[in-house]
Write a structure and sequence with these properties.
48% of the residues lie in helices and 9% in strands. It is mainly alpha-helical.
């Protein structure tokens, strides 16, 4: 879809007061939205390629440095010319929920408090809450707080009837 000729550039938009931007014709806003979407996709692709290049260049050295420190994950620093490369490999831990629940029961059965070792977060899915009988829902309501996220708006061409 071609953009209108007088669509401001992203640089123009950054220097434009928000009120002025808001007053632009919707066709120009849609064109600018298209430019931003295109720029965002290009930046995301460029960032992914750049990150992959850094991984190709430094992953082996970073793994060797971690091994020399006796660790599999974490942050190491590598010298490269006048630069220090900070290579981070975060630890990711996943817990088998069924096995962890059994361990919690075993701890409780032995007379200890599993909360000393295991964090538990109780939640109710909105789908399940929505199908609860009204009387039950009223019981859940004092524990439920509803908020909202950040509003977003997307301009799309209207479909012809």
């Amino acid at each position: 879809m071609p953009y209108p000729e007088n669509t401001p550039s992203v640089d123009d938009m950054l220097n434009m007061p928000t009120g002025d931007l808001a007053q632009m014709p919707v066709e120009l806003l849609a064109g600018l939205q298209g430019e931003l979407d295109h720029a965002s996709k290009r930046l995301k692709a460029a960032t992914a390629r750049f990150s992959a290049a850094l991984e190709v260049r430094y992953a082996t050295r970073a793994a060797d440095a971690r091994r020399a420190c006796g660790k599999d994950t974490g942050t190491v620093r590598l010298a490269d010319g006048d630069f220090t490369v900070v290579a981070d490999l975060p630890k990711r831990v996943d817990w088998d929920q069924e096995k962890l629940a059994q361990i919690a029961r075993n701890i409780a059965d032995s007379g200890e408090d599993p909360a000393e070792f295991i964090d538990t977060k109780l939640t109710v899915s909105e789908r399940k809450y929505g199908v609860l009988p009204e009387a039950w829902r009223k019981g859940f309501d004092p524990a439920r707080t509803v908020g909202s996220g950040k509003a977003s708006f997307k301009l799309e061409p209207a479909k012809a009837p």
